[in-house]
Design goal:
about 210 residues; elongated; 15 strands; 3 helices; 3-stranded antiparallel beta sheet; mainly beta
Length: about 210
């Protein structure tokens, strides 16, 4: 009876096919042999994988070894933004701004995560609903950039309906996370339009 077993030995995986049976039966099983990388391994090595084949006849004689090289191409995993922090279910958060308030921090518990990159290169924080036009803005403390990382530049882009803070430059995830946590919203209109505002956060690593 044919059987296929897969004992794991350290970093190696072995498949053993045993007979007795015909060579055609062995060929049929070998033609279905597949390789996979466990989905839980989100940052796998890109080193080539080598599969070696050995065959033994019914008299115990081993034939020559054959080898197969599997080229491995990893994919880039995009950074993950969690605005309400890792301890809370979901990734969105809410903030309440009252007329005449000072700027309020919108995501003080925000976290950033990238499984295959220790550094980030860009982050945009956009106020996408701007009911009071130029009276509504996003801001960060004036000294924050200099104190965290002087490689990062800040570009402020206002429009009639939106306002964007764009941070650019190579820095650790923790630096970008700290920047996100101090982004504040304010509206200095004399008679602000009530209603919901929305803020979108997009983070990029080098390959995004």
């Amino acid at each position: 009876k044919d059987q296929l077993t897969n004992p794991l030995k350290g970093t190696r995986s072995a498949a053993l096919l045993e007979g007795p049976t015909t060579s055609l039966a062995f060929e049929a099983v070998l033609s279905t042999l597949e390789y996979f990388n466990t989905p839980s391994n989100r940052n796998p090595s890109t080193s080539p994988r080598i599969v070696r084949f050995y065959a033994q006849d019914d008299e115990g004689l081993w034939g020559p070894r054959s080898s197969l090289v599997i080229a491995f191409r990893a994919v880039n995993n995009a950074p993950v933004v969690d605005l309400n922090g890792a301890a809370v279910v979901g990734s969105a958060t809410d903030a309440l701004y009252t007329e005449n308030d000072n700027p309020i921090v919108i995501a003080p518990l925000a976290t950033l995560f990238d499984v295959d990159s220790p550094e980030l290169y860009k982050m945009s924080v956009t106020l996408t609903i701007r009911l009071d036009g130029d009276s509504e803005k996003l801001t960060i403390p004036a000294t924050t950039l200099a104190s965290l990382n002087n490689n990062i530049t800040l570009l402020q882009t206002p429009s009639e309906s939106s306002f964007t803070l764009e941070f650019s430059g190579k820095a650790s995830i923790s630096v970008y996370e700290e920047l996100l946590r101090v982004v504040s919203y304010f509206d200095f209109a004399e008679e602000p339009v009530p209603g919901m505002r929305s803020v979108a956060v997009v983070v990029e690593d080098r390959s995004s």
